[in-house]
Amino acid sequence: MQTDTEKATTTTPNKLGFDTLVTKKVEVRGPVSPLCTPIYQTSTFVLKDTRHGASLCSHQELKQDESPYLYSRWSNPTNDVLERLITTLEGGYSTYVTSSGMAAISTVLLSFLKAGDHVIITNNVYGGTHEFATDILSRYGVEVSWVDQNDVANYRNAIKPNTKLMYGETPANPTMVLLDLQAFGALGKERGILTVVDSTFASPYNQRPIEFGVDVVVHSATKYYGGHSDLIAGAIIVANETLDKSLAHQFRLFGGALAPNIAFLLHRGIKTLALRMERHNNNALQLARYLESHPKIKKVHYPGLESHPQHELAKKQMRGFGGMIGMEIHGGLEAGRYLVENLKVFTLAVSLGGVESLIEQASTMTHGMLTAKDREKAGIPDGFLRLSVGCEDVNDLIQDLETTLSEINI
Predict the structure, then answer these.
(1) Is the C-alpha dihedral spanning 373, 377, 383, 388 positive or negative?
(2) Are residues 234 and 334 in the same domain?
(3) What is the rounded distance in angstroms from the CA atom of residue 68 to the CA atom of residue 61?
(4) Residues 146, 237: one domain?
(5) Both 278 and 264 in a single domain?
């Protein structure tokens, strides 16, 4: 019988011990050309030599046969494929995928703003963005002004000598107020102010803000990009090389890079984006028309309706009108609560953009952190409901609403 010492020193024919062999990299036999991009589940990458490593660490030009990958917080092949795909879909210069939509938003705002700067943000904005601007930016000495994005003139009137960034969201969460992208982009170029747009509600299938002159686009890729309610991710798309160079360093330092296994899932979700968005668009338009005609519904907010005050703008800058609907019900808070708690096909949940239809009470849930005054400014009255229309049979969705609405006494 071998002693423990003898076991530890026993070697294979290639003179390496078992304990060493289990840790060594084994090369993939090739050539290999997988149809689906593999998950590069690795934190670090093997370097050719010290000069190769030094070049990567100092961002110097690489030789033709040298890998561009050093560490997965910086870049990863799975993420790189995903980022290049999103860049193409958005018509941008480059993309950074992040660990969440809020990671994308916070990275952009912290990368391009510093103490003493002024930022203008729409009142009609995602609750998390509102919280970040109110609780975090102010703590770091950034001045924030809030405007109604319904008219780009409101941004112009709010500009100060220290204004560095203007932020919009279109369609807005949850009111579906639109931002005129062309006018917004032009104002930014005229005044030398960075323009940022959250385009989550539209997806690149329906809207590409960079084509209208916007500098930076952010997405909660959790939503329509992913499409299946099974991942958390974000994306930042920049319009040109100068912006890319400004963002790259901060992105690496903030550490919000997307894990490669999630990047794989996100890439897979994107493969059905066009098919899903066509159904989202069609279902939501039919549902919005049904709701608009219902006597118990006070108001429907959907840019695809002729009654939407910005319908012509929607037709100008959107290919389709998306799957999101804002809705006010007669009876307010309690009637809305009954509806969302008793539907059978719609699911009561936050988030959006998945194949299943969701509903939530925006005034008490996703935007409940806003003060009553701020909700009033944003056009979110008590009982405001937000519907994420999925890919089910639209007749089932209509029947679900019809049955539950009939049970509400107003």
Answers:
(1) negative
(2) no
(3) 10
(4) yes
(5) no
Q: Is residue 349 a contact partner of residue 303, using CB atoms and an 8 Å limit?
A: no
Q: Give the tens place of pLDDT for each residue, 359-387.
A: 999 877 777 777 778 777 777 878 789 99
Catalytic positions are 73, 126, 198, 223
Q: Which amino acid is at 330?
A: H
Answer yes or no: pTM beyond 0.90. Answer: yes
Element (H, E) at 119: strand 118-122
Q: What is the pLDDT of residues 137-195, one digit of tens each?
A: 999 999 999 999 999 999 999 999 999 999 999 999 999 999 999 999 999 999 999 99
**Separation of alpha carbons 364 and 88, rounded Å:** 38
Token pair 């870049």 is at which residue?
Answer: 75
The reply to whether 218 and 353 lie within a common domain is no
Give me the phi and psi of 266, to 5 degrees please: -65, -40
In a shared domain, residues 247 and 334: no
Q: What is the pLDDT of residue 365?
A: 73
